[in-house]
DNA sequence: GTGATACGTTGCCAGAGTCAACAAATCATC
DNA sequence: GATGATTTGTTGACTCTGGCAACGTATCAC
């Protein structure tokens, strides 16, 4: 129970303004006064401090049809960036994401085999070193890592990443030592929620459930009462291992009858006669929608009914506003949305399911980069007065490795 | 995203101090200084304001063995009270609970039949009117109602209380109109969590799950990341309707194979040969522990295994610090704690279950009164500067209806 | 009794947000 | 194109809050 003093007050107000322009996009000063309830002069002073610190920029006002003096637009800076890292079985992706939401660059480093933690650190540090030589005028806040596995929130230790074969790897510490930048790590699915919550299908929601279907299983995360649920040690969100069936079918953790054991991408690919290596999420969805095979419909129905058991349980316990489905679960849902809705309704309390939306994830391939960057930005958003000593050069957008200029909607 | 101004700052700090002494018990000024990080002079001023408002009292310091000037003890007032109301099928209970945690009075009004909402309001208002004639020197903050059913958080509308046969009853509004006091209502199980969280088995926990087994079903609530989960409309916590079995056994809501359908007090009473009307929670627990009947053991094992499915699901999704079991579920757990632990461990991810405690609820018969009072106190705790116009006389403790002086540990 | 220790009290100070008056920039109207 | 209405930024005086340091006070140990 920390008390609040004057410094905290200023910090809080700076934090609120920076969060607003970062999360909800650019806003005029007049809008900020209305949103925060603070005085015009206060907003002026706060924005001036943020400009001074290089965190936001003021643009000339949009031409509006209203009478009155135009209000300058306050926007999060493009020059303040976080580095987002996502190690996978066949590649390591590094993104440069700006506070404004723009994904400046996206570098994919393909690996011939699944990297060890040490290799992943070396490769990532190498990519970042390459970037540094090129960097100027940009301020790097820190590094966020999206790990496909269980990550201890406390210190970023990767407890278990089955897909990569990592156990108890101090990934965060290693990368911090190798780069000298602050590093934060979290489970990829929980970062998916973060991204969808702020910039995707969950915008403005305080209670949402997110389930992501990947090739190796089902993960997810949740936001409860406006707070991202981490749990005791950051392991919350493992929807894949909820029991939904009495069958003996085991999942990757050896538990029988779980969601992940019954609802799989591989089973869908098999009835469709598709190869995993050639099928991305969109292809799968198109194939499911195009198919008129009875076997496909039966498999879709079977999987949807099991998914409904898990979702209904979550609805009863959490009474969310929205359930966001990503990965192949989005495709599965798209194949027969009504069946899923009806099945969840049948298995949950009417009052609790009342008004719950089931929606596909909106952010595509940038999902994890945005989520990981958000993780790295958090420290800055909490305290915009933090001294950030790490500023590196990054001239224009002439990348050395591989450039994917991209952005996500605000 | 509300900004914070000077008034908010003061309010926050007053709120923090009042919460501390209310929730964690009396503390010396010196302790408050350390806990809040605020300056000694600030604490002095804040405590003085709270004393001025009659919310806290300063007592002479405890004799301590330390050198130095003794620090006055700051304690929440006994004279500031909330009225807690709990309508049930055969009685309406009203409690007078002080900010200090003392339950001054407890009045149980037995009804010959299950009361309608209007009757419940009339009876409650009558009891409160009787109290008012007697009241002096006490300040009544408001009324909190613990309703055995679904309550819409928004306005306290009782959507559905199956046990009482109520549907869409504006209980809160009616009682507010009848008494002129502010009224807040919530689901009884979710108030149970509140009580256990602050004063019982969940003290200091930020992630806890609470399941309560009652005669008519299983309800519960959860705290996620330090926030009580209400959900979109306050219906969160319905653990009873989670599916745990493939059987066709239906629960009160008509859903098959749910926790509430498989795990029931009645089934335990039946194998024990006990009558519901004569068996309270303690009796049930003693009978279960004393029994050496194979049928009883089998039924206990069957129910524990189903309970484990629900708990494992919750563990995987929420990664809590503690699972608190109340009502007959506490008795069930006590009958074979190891079996439950092992079964939950087998059905959940090792990392997520690691360190999770399963504990019985600590607060007994005062649970709901304390939870309901806490609900009513919340407005005051949020803003100790709130003008409270409602002060009524209450001379000594000479009750007119039925008095149960009692208190709960702090 | 004396010193050490811990804590409350007091008066002064700095910092943050508020307020009101004024200036500036736009639109609508004549 | 001048005028007024409207909205908003700017400025300086003001208020309130917590911090700080010096001082006073109450206890313990010797």
Automatic annotation (TrEMBL), chains A, B:
Signal sequence, renumbered to the chain: none
This protein's record includes keyword Kinase: yes
Protein name: ROK family transcriptional regulator
Keyword 4Fe-4S: no
HTH marR-type domain residues: 16-63
Entry keyword set: Kinase, Transferase
Gene Ontology MF term list: DNA-binding transcription factor activity; kinase activity
Organism encoding this protein: Cryobacterium levicorallinum
Record InterPro entries: ATPase_NBD, HTH_MarR-typ, ROK, WH-like_DNA-bd_sf, WH_DNA-bd_sf
SUPFAM superfamilies reported in the protein's UniProt record: Actin-like ATPase domain, Winged helix' DNA-binding domain
Organism taxonomic ancestry: Bacteria, Bacillati, Actinomycetota, Actinomycetes, Micrococcales
């Amino acid at each position: 129970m920390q008390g609040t003093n004057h410094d905290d007050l200023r910090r809080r107000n700076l934090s609120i303004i920076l969060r607003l322009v970062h999360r909800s996009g650019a806003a005029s000063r007049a809008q900020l006064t209305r949103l925060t309830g603070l005085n015009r002069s206060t907003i002026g002073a706060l924005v001036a401090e943020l400009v001074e610190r290089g965190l936001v920029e003021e643009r000339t006002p949009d031409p509006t049809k209203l009478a009155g003096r135009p209000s300058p637009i306050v926007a999060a800076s493009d020059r303040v960036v976080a580095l987002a890292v996502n190690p996978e079985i066949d590649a390591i992706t590094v993104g440069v994401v700006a506070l404004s939401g723009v994904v400046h660059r996206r570098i994919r480093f393909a690996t011939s085999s699944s990297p060890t933690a040490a290799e992943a650190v070396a490769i990532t540090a190498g990519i970042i070193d390459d970037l540094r030589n090129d960097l100027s005028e940009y301020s790097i806040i820190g590094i966020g890592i999206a790990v496909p596995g269980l990550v201890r929130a406390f210190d970023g230790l990767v407890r278990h990443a089955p897909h990569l074969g990592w156990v108890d790897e101090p990934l965060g510490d290693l990368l911090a030592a190798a780069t000298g930048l602050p590093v934060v790590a979290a489970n990829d699915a929980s970062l998916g929620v973060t991204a969808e919550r702020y910039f995707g299908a969950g915008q403005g929601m305080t209670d949402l459930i997110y389930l992501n279907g990947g090739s190796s299983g089902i993960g997810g995360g949740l936001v409860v009462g406006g707070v991202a649920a981490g749990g005791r040690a950051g392991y919350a969100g493992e929807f894949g291992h909820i029991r939904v069936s009495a069958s003996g079918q085991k999942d990757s953790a050896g538990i029988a009858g779980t969601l992940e054991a019954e609802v799989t991408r591989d089973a869908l690919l098999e009835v469709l006669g598709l190869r995993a290596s050639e099928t991305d999420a969109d292809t799968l969805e198109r194939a499911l929608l195009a198919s008129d095979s009875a076997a496909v419909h039966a498999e879709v129905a079977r999987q949807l009914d099991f998914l409904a058991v898990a979702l209904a349980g979550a609805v009863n316990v959490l009474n969310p506003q929205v359930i966001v489905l990503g990965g192949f679960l989005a495709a599965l849902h798209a194949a027969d949305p009504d069946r899923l809705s009806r099945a969840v309704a049948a298995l949950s309390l009417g009052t609790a399911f009342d008004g719950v939306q089931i929606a596909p994830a909106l952010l595509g391939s940038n999902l994890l980069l945005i989520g990981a960057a958000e993780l790295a930005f958090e420290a800055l958003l909490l305290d915009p007065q933090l001294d950030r000593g790490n500023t590196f050069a990054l001239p224009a957008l002439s990348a050395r490795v591989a450039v994917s200029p991209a952005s996500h909607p605000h």
